[in-house]
Design a protein that fits this description.
This protein has 168 residues and is mostly beta strands. The termini are far apart. It has 2 domains: 101 residues, no CATH class; 43 residues, no CATH class. It is 11% helix and 32% strand. The chain is built from 3 helices and 8 strands; from the N terminus they run βαβαβββββαβ. The chain has a 4-stranded antiparallel β-sheet with strand order 1-2-4-3, with no helix packed on it. Strands 7-6-5-8 form a 4-stranded antiparallel β-sheet.
Length: 168
């Protein structure tokens, strides 16, 4: 096994689905076995869409054989490259055979946006739904809460108001 002996299957890795709800763009994973001394990193190498799996009988088929012509063309057009190699050395009692999982990825022609909010220790806030209100706040160490220094500003706040924290 001086060259990679690929498994018969590939897996789609839906990296954009969990966070962004996009299942049209995905990475690919392929597994192969190779002798430790013959291993060389394949990072940044392109995906060979015609790659064949290992078959000691000599009748191996293409790994991507069961795809429609349209999906095969789509995968070929994405210019996948090896982004990551995960090496498992526990597959052999002797430790001389590596089980490598290659993760192939590409940069989709799409912008993914993620919004996040973080609690910040700050000294000011303002009401977004009514921008005429803004008030200074202070941290009350006894209660562990931020409080408005102006009671008139506090009276203008309502349930479901959106507040933005800013730094002074």
């Amino acid at each position: 096994m001086t060259s990679p002996c690929y498994d018969d299957i590939f897996r789609r890795n839906y990296v954009f689905d969990a966070e962004f709800g996009d299942s049209e763009n995905y990475f690919l994973e392929l597994d192969y076995y190779i002798m430790r001394e013959a291993f060389t990193s394949r990072r940044k190498m392109p995906l060979d869409i015609g790659i064949r799996y290992y078959d000691d009988a000599g009748a191996s088929e293409e790994i991507f054989r069961d795809l429609s012509a349209a999906e095969k063309a789509l995968i070929a057009s994405r210019n996948y490259i090896v982004l990551e190699e995960n090496i498992d050395i526990s597959t052999s009692e002797f430790g001389d055979i590596y089980h490598v999982t290659e993760v192939y990825g590409y940069a989709p022609e799409k912008t993914f946006t993620q919004y996040e909010s973080v609690l910040a220790n700050s000294y000011g806030w303002k009401k977004l739904t009514n921008t005429s209100i803004s008030g200074w706040i202070f941290y009350d160490a006894d209660t562990g809460y931020f409080k408005l220094s102006s009671s008139s500003a506090a009276n203008m706040l309502s349930v479901e108001d959106e507040l933005s924290v800013y730094y002074n």
